[in-house]
Amino acid sequence: MNEHTIRLTVNGENAEVRVEPRMLLSDLIRHQLGLTGTHVGCEQGACGACTVIIDGRPQRSCLVLAVQADGTTVETVEGVECDGIENAVQTALHEQHGLQCGFCTPGIVMSLVAAHRAGVPAATAREQVLDGHLCRCTGYVNIRAAVDAAWEAAGDRRTGYRQENLGQESHRQESHGQESLGQVSLGQESHRQGGSE
Amino acid sequence: MRPRHVGQRVPRVNDHGPLHGTGLYVDDIEVPGMLHAAIVRSPVAHGILTAFESESVPGSASVFGPEHLRARVHAEVPVLWTIGDQQQLGTPLVDEHLRYVGQPIGIAVAGSRYQAEDAAEAVDLAIDYLTPVVGIDQALAPDAPLLYPDSGTNVIATFEAGDSAEHDRAVFAAADRVLRTTLRIGRVHGLAIEPRGIVAVPEPRRAPGNRNRITIYTSTQTPHGVRDSVCEVLGLRQGDVRVVAPDVGGAFGLKDHIYEDELMVVIAALELGRPVKWIEDRFESLLATTHARDEIHEVEVAFDEDGSLRGLRVDGRRNVGARLAVFGGGPLFTALGVVPGPYRWESVRCGGRLVATNTMSTGAYRGFGQTQAALIRERAVDLVAGELGIDPVDLREMNMIAADELPYRMRTPIQLDNGDYRRALRRAGELIAEAPAPPDDGLARGVGYCSYVQMGGIGPSDANEAIGLQIGGFESATVRFEPDGTVRVATGISPHGQGLETTIPQLVADELGINPGTVELVHGDTDTTPYSAYGTAASRSIALGGGAAVVASQRLADKVRAIAAEMLEANPADIELGNGRATVAGTNVDVAIADVARRAWQGFRLPDGSDPGLAESYAYEPVSATFSYATHACRVAVDTETGAVSVEEYVVVHDCGTIVNPTIVEGQIHGGVAQGLGAALMEEFFYDEDGQPLSSTLLDYHVPVSESMPDIRIEHLQIPSPHTPGGMKGMGEGGTNGSYAAVVNAVCSALPDADWSDLATPLSPSRIWQALHERA
């Protein structure tokens, strides 16, 4: 089968790989690049376990062909930075017992990290971003607690940034899709009491 | 007083992998030279395969059809539970009689998963079609097509439980009133987020007698059980097969045995002499990973005008699918065994039938029948309360077994151990009454309750044998100090999310007087762990696997004290263990336990009677099953225009005996509640009348999302088990058992005018709308 050469940046490293046109990005990441932290739960775009961040936006890597990722910058759970919101999300999930079998966890980490970077408030992350992920172990209760804890912890480090945005009109997400959440600009952040809380 | 680790919220020790991408699940395993497999499956629900042609398959792929596979098979795939007059004791690995969509009939192996799927699709099948039979009623009709024509019936087994017909008739005749209801319990899928998967790696080096040792990495909850079946079906020597469970992404009963398709992977690896990986996709998982429930129960309850419950009659039929799952009719048998629950009855009489249809097998799923038992009983109790106008909490309390009546033998006749059922009920009633008042928004609201007893810690082995269950009920542990003073605990239980890597070390640390951070659980590998027929299943792990570790640790602690006493020139009875040190009581004279361990492994100057080394093994045979219990209460809001249900408030008051780690217990309850809530409101696997699956994606099979789940208020009672070392009762399934019936009862309570005489779950918006507007 004809193959294509694509170039992309994964977790800060440049990669040039040859792929069949039908190869899924999730398979490229896991089986050609060896980054198995990204999990595949359905290949139907429903469970969210395979979520990675592509050019700043959280996307299900099972719904993206590898060739579509040519020229993009991809972040996986192995590559998220170990300070700031990334660490806050991971720490909160651990401390709040927000994972059991852990299979859905990497996708949730990536969506939450992307949401926080995009200025999505905690309530929206808790009530809408999480609805893009299926977890069969936790009943979501402790994941929601972890969202609040992570936003609390990361928000503390970004007090100046938060202050600037307090008082702005709250932003309600009309779409449940993750991609649209990724498009929220930083200026649209609402304070924690806003949103749909 | 040394610090106690049991009861503390010790953080989980194994979160790092999933959080940072360093876990090792089965699809993460890469082996040099590895090939990939895809399964050829039946596209029809009922038919005879007359040809399996692989001429169109590219030469780079290998295909094994029924004849080729059959040549490697020594025995049928076992069914481990024989119930009543059950005829089916096992099923062939491959069978040209196709009985459900998704039945594996061959395997294609190639250099990549993509190529293997191409090859599987290129196989040409010729099939003579037969008329399928899909539902229980259809299968029991007089002229129904038969799945197993030789048997003359679609009934695989019938059995009874509880009181005699004479006693039952006498109690019903003497009671003031009788109510009847029909409960249809929908077919569900346990739906672990990680699908099944297996990597079979034959060793190139041949053992004596030309036997290839093979290592099987598989997403399982029971590594030893998988090894048993692989060896039985393929005629391999047990020592030649190593089964490893790496990180497992959820199981819930679905991964409690080896499946036919997985055995085909093992055969392919042995035939090709190459490692072969197969990872189930979600479509296959929905079609061909064990389903659950799909039952119809005719329920009759006899009672007096004062609210006294007197008799319970249950006629249960279970759709077992096209063949029995590994534990056969066990879930229905278990349901009818525990259906009396925490109440006094004068008579309980149950009948069960296992019915074959052209659908996927129904087997183990969290609760293993006890979820259905709770619905049967708790619906009946609510019907009586509603009929008599008695508050459902009051009616429950007046019929509930009091603390001082325990132990109590149910009429089925399983013995309940200890606890205070009424206290859990009363407290749950108080907590749900304290919940914030609902807004005045026009939605219909109702509160539902479920009180249950949950059989966990199942055993002893002799009791298993007596009910036809062909696996032992004991659990084993080896607790071993390494020479550096750290401890490894080898266990047959096989955690996959339950946090046993954290909780078993808590138990062991307390017995040995050390920090749990120095204790590591060794699990999931038949080469390094003691035998366990169950692995982690059936709410047994902390009660029995934990119990075994406690006793082994106590014996090990005795040896530490003996050696320390020799080193400190003291009496062993005066040695106290704590904070990592062995101390002569009431003095400052002590020695580090790590130094004791080093000496034990040096063998220097050990006391008389002490062998060198520092390890103890114990096989714990339980004396009796354990019973955790709870009352769940919830409040729902129902939109009568749309039938949509929102669960707004949820409380759980429960007792699972000694709580090793409250955080982990609460997490288990949360997840269990979600699964019961899903079955109550949204989860249902559908077939059409031709037996074609209609729920073949996660967009068609709905499970709860975060929005579906309320926060949960939990209160713990802690009345230790009188039986288990450590006092744990087990609690992995309780959440599911409580929430299913509590949510159903709440919806029924919210809509008292709807017609619930023939109640089917899930209570989807359409079913609720119909109950309100079409049948009333």
Helix content of chain A: 25-40%
Low-pLDDT segments, ≥5 res of chain A? 156-197
Principal-axes geometry of chain A comes out as globular
Unreliable sequence segments of chain B:
none
Q: How many discrete domains of chain B?
A: 3
How many separate domains of chain A? 2
- Rounded to the nearest angstrom, the distance between the terminal CA atoms of chain B is 66 Å
Task: Write the CATH architecture name of the largest domain in chain A.
Answer: Orthogonal Bundle
Structural class of chain A: alpha+beta
Briefly note the structural class of the backbone of chain B.
Answer: alpha+beta
Chain pair with largest interface: A-B, 53 and 58 residues
Describe the structure.
- The complex is a heterodimer of chains A (197) and B (776).
- Chain A is 36% helix and 13% strand.
- Chain A is built from seven helices and five strands; from the N terminus they run E-E-H-E-E-E-H-H-H-H-H-H.
- The radius of gyration of chain A is 17 Å and the shape is globular.
- Chain A has 197 residues and is α+β, with helices and mostly antiparallel strands.
- Chain A has a five-stranded mixed sheet, sandwiched between helices.
- Chain A starts with a strand and ends in a 15-residue tail after the last helix.
- Residues 156-197 of chain A have low confidence and may be disordered.
- In chain A, helix 2 packs antiparallel against helix 5 (141-157) and helix 4 (122-129) runs antiparallel to helix 5 (141-157).
- Chain A has two domains: 4-75, Ubiquitin-like (UB roll), CATH 3.10.20; 84-188, Orthogonal Bundle (DNA polymerase, domain 1), CATH 1.10.150.120.
- Chain B is of the alpha+beta class and 776 residues long.
- Chain B folds into three domains: 31-130 and 192-251 and 255-288, Aldehyde oxidase/xanthine dehydrogenase, a/b hammerhead (Aldehyde Oxidoreductase, domain 3), CATH 3.90.1170; 291-460 and 623-773, Aldehyde oxidase/xanthine dehydrogenase, molybdopterin binding domain (Aldehyde Oxidoreductase, domain 4, 2-Layer Sandwich), CATH 3.30.365.10; 474-620, Aldehyde Oxidoreductase, domain 4.
- In chain B, 28% of the residues lie in helices and 26% in strands.
- Chain B has 19 helices and 31 strands.
- In chain B, the strands form eight sheets. In chain B, strands 3-7-1-14-11-12-13 form a seven-stranded mixed sheet.
- In chain B, strand 21 and strand 22 (487-491) form a beta hairpin.
- The longest helix of chain B is centred in the last third of the chain and has 28 residues, at 541-568.
- Chain B is globular, with a radius of gyration of 27 Å.
- Chain B starts with 15 loop residues before the first helix and ends with a helix.
- The mean pLDDT of chain B is 96.
- At the A-B interface, helix 1, helix 2, helix 3 and helix 5 of A face helix 1 and helix 17 of B.
